[in-house]
Design brief:
Blueprint lengths: L2 E6 L9 H11 L4 E5 L5 H4 L5 E9 L6 E5 L1 H9 L2 E2 L5 H11 L1 H4 L2 E9 L10 H18 L1
Parallel strand pairs: 1-2, 1-3, 3-6
Antiparallel strand pairs: 3-5, 4-6
Helix pairs in contact: 1-6
Protein name: Protein frxA
Pfam families: HycI
InterPro entries: Pept_HybD-like_dom_sf (IPR023430), Peptidase_A31 (IPR000671)
């Protein structure tokens, strides 16, 4: 199954850039990764009909450094109800809109790998708890992509 990994985030906003950093690790390992920053709508431009899409992003939470995995409809229901994407119109709302507009995306298997962050602040460094979560997130994405 062909897989597209979408790395989201803003790397000049501290922990919010963790999705981009994870994406770069995976790209070095040979995976197809597209860095979309905070523009989920660019997905439509880079999507090449892959059967599986894995989105990596930071999510706001009181417990930083956790790695979460959501799949299919759970991506939309849980992220809306329990935690917020770090981007408003959140990446998830944008993805839902794209899927409604582009039937190619509707048939893709959607996964979301989130790394919880406590706050967004200006800076290039990640907090220790978020930095420690990177290897676990990379391993999870690799397992999903198999």
């Amino acid at each position: 199954m062909r897989t597209l990994i979408v790395a989201l985030g803003n790397e000049v906003m501290g922990d919010d850039g963790v999705g981009i950093k994870i994406g770069r690790v995976l790209k070095e390992k040979g995976y197809r990764v597209e860095e979309l920053g905070t523009d989920i709508f660019s997905l439509q431009r880079v999507y090449q009909g892959e059967e599986r899409i894995i989105i990596i992003d930071a999510v706001l939470s009181e417990n930083p450094g956790e790695v979460i995995h959501l799949k299919g409809e759970e991506v939309f229901s849980r992220l809306k109800a329990e935690i917020r994407s770090a981007h408003f119109m959140g990446a998830i709302e944008g993805l839902k809109l794209l899927m409604a507009l582009d039937e190619r995306l509707r048939s893709a298997e959607i996964h979301f790998v989130g790394i919880t962050i406590k706050k967004i602040k200006l800076g290039l460094e990640l907090s220790e708890s978020v930095e420690r979560a990177i290897p676990r997130a990379v391993k999870l994405v690799e397992e999903i992509a198999r």
